[in-house]
Every structure is written in structure tokens, then in C-alpha cells.
């Protein structure tokens, strides 16, 4: 099954973005002071969702909100999307907050929140 998702991701990366959605779960998270523990990551339920079509790319950053007692998401329209053909990485940029996400062809992702925090994990294609 993993091979089929990777193959699907390679095909999506090779073509111009028609429409694709990824769900990406955070497996590791660091900030300038410390790494998050497995318990903190589980409690925080951190994830991102990437929605891309010909006209727009948007990323939703999600986590558990103690005040709302549920997972909430903030959605951002990205300023730029770049595909690096040499290393097969798709990069999404939001300039005003220095936020970016990189998705590799094997669906590994790196999120840089622009304030010293970095998250890593795996994505899955939820809508090709």
C-alpha cells in the first residue's frame, strides 16, 4: 500500500497541479527551547492539510484547542508554490509570516512555522 501512495505522489508531483489534497500528521515537533514529547504530540493532535488546484494553494494548520475542547484549524492561502525538479520536493511559501512547508516525493513533510518551530511527519493523498 505504501508503494502505491508513493507512486501516486510521484505522478502528482510530475504533473502540473490540477487538484490534490494531502493530510499530514505530525510525528516529531521541535521549537527553539525543546523537542515535544510523544505525549505532547499525541495530546496536541498536530496536523496540516494541503489543498492545491490550478488557481490556489492553501494550508490548514490544525491542533487541539483546550478552550474549544476540539481540534481547530487556521487556514492560509499560500503565496507561492515551487516544485524543485532536481530533488522532487514541492515547497509552499507564506511570506508574511515566514511559514513554509516542503513535501517530498515519498510524502515526508517538513513544516517551518517561521518562529523557530519545525515539525516533521508523513502525508497521505486524500483527494487526487
Describe the structure.
The protein has 128 residues and is an alpha+beta fold. The protein has a single domain (2-127), classed as Lipocalin, CATH 2.40.128. The protein is 16% helix and 53% strand. The chain contains 2 helices and 9 strands, in the order H-E-H-E-E-E-E-E-E-E-E. The protein has helices spanning 2-14, 38-44; strands at 19-30, 47-53, 57-65, 70-77, 80-84, 89-94, 99-104, 108-112, 118-127. Strands 4-3-2-1-9-8-7-6-5 form a 9-stranded antiparallel beta sheet. Strand 7 (99-104) and strand 8 form a beta hairpin. It is globular and about 35 Å long. The relative contact order is 0.24. Mean pLDDT is 88; it is low at 1-16.
CATH architecture: Beta Barrel
- Overall average residue pLDDT: 88
Helicity range = 10-25%
The main sheet orders its strands as: 4-3-2-1-9-8-7-6-5
Number of domains: 1
Amino acid at each position: 500500500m505504501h508503494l502505491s501512495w508513493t507512486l501516486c505522489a510521484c505522478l502528482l508531483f510530475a504533473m502540473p497541479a490540477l487538484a490534490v489534497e494531502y493530510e499530514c500528521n505530525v510525528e516529531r515537533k521541535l521549537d527553539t527551547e525543546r523537542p515535544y514529547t510523544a505525549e505532547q504530540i499525541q495530546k496536541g493532535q498536530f496536523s496540516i492539510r494541503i489543498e492545491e488546484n490550478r488557481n490556489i494553494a492553501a494550508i490548514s494548520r490544525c491542533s487541539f484547542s483546550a478552550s474549544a475542547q476540539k481540534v481547530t484549524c487556521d487556514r492560509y492561502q499560500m503565496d507561492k508554490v515551487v516544485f524543485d525538479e532536481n530533488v522532487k520536493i514541492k515547497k509552499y511559501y507564506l511570506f508574511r509570516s515566514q511559514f513554509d512547508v516542503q513535501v517530498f516525493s515519498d510524502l515526508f513533510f517538513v513544516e517551518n512555522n517561521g518562529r523557530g518551530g519545525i515539525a516533521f511527519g508523513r502525508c497521505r493523498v486524500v483527494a487526487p
